[in-house]
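Quick one, T. Sequence first:
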Amino acid sequence: MKKVIVLICIAAAIATLPSFQQKQFDLKASMKRGEEIYISYCLSCHMDQGQGIEGIYPPVAKSDYLMADKNRSIIQIIKGAKGEMTVNGKKYDMEMPGFDLSDEEVSDVLNYIRNSWGNKGAPVTPAEVKAVRK
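Structure tokens:
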């Protein structure tokens, strides 16, 4: 009987582990790392305050398009984007290259962008990036 109780306790502890790990995600640290990635890869087009260049490069600041679909944002960082898109009521049709970034780097840069310049978004975890990448 004791063995059964011990096994149940172990199973319960394992079952709660993923939610515990997700609660431990450090958004602030991720954003700090993400700022460096943004400066290296994104700033030249989307500018220092995420404002973009109207008619050429869409803004990521206060961006309805960016905030509408987290998975789409992950895909666009990894694979790039082409074709017309409407951001904050304005049309853009420039091609964005994809970037060879790790799951953590994609998570970090999106956390920085999705939580800067008037944006407020739920964290993007490396596990989410990995799942979308597949």
